Task: structure prediction
Amino acid sequence: MKKHFYDYLWIASALYLILGFFNILFAWLGLLCFMIPLMISIFGKSKAYCNRYCGRGQLFSLLGQTLRLSRNKPMPRFLKSRIFRYGFLAFFMTMFGLMITQTVGVFLNADSLKTAVTLLWTFRVPWTFAYTETALPAWVSQFAFGFYSIMLTSTILGIVLMVLYKPRAWCVCCPMGTMTQLVCKAHAHGKTEQN
Amino acid sequence: MAKRKAVVDKTHCVACGCCTTACKLHAITVFRGIYAQVSDRCVGCAKCAAMCPADAIRMEAAT
Result:
């Protein structure tokens, strides 16, 4: 099948994770992975991002399918249920909110900048090696650390799911995927299948 | 062997589009970002069902 430019977006995803080890400010680029899918779902009324452009999904396909790192087993029913998917989205958004609160704390000088990445919402890993003092305000770096924590955490979870179940098992509970599907559902409310 | 066709469980489909990349015949597409839908072109190869992370596709005898 003919390859398109978007078939190589996994390189961008991998590069993003690598760049975070060198300069945390690159974490800001991750906002694209939040904004683009939302924009496509709100204005394009589709999940074209998941379907075509998601570099992370492609990365999981590459690791799980091409490199055969996945067990290729069905996921437990519980993980596929709507309750879990919506619950995970709510949890994810709560943690995102907490991260924003921390950033605001640093912005208001109430908190000091913490040069650490929190993995799986629990383990605080010193990440000073990727931090260099710049003329930018501290909250810019605080947001970068917080955002990179989210991106790395979800990648780790995605890799675990990829190994244990199907290559793109992450897609089932991906908060962005759930959110964009909800937006699309709201758009299509009342409309039925065309064929 | 009886002819088979992919059938999508719409309540479990996450509309990720893994099935659309697996299908060589472009017989399965994502409808409005909500769920996958199968066209008449489906020959029942079950590649989509094997790929589906939500296990939302099952193969049924074509009617």
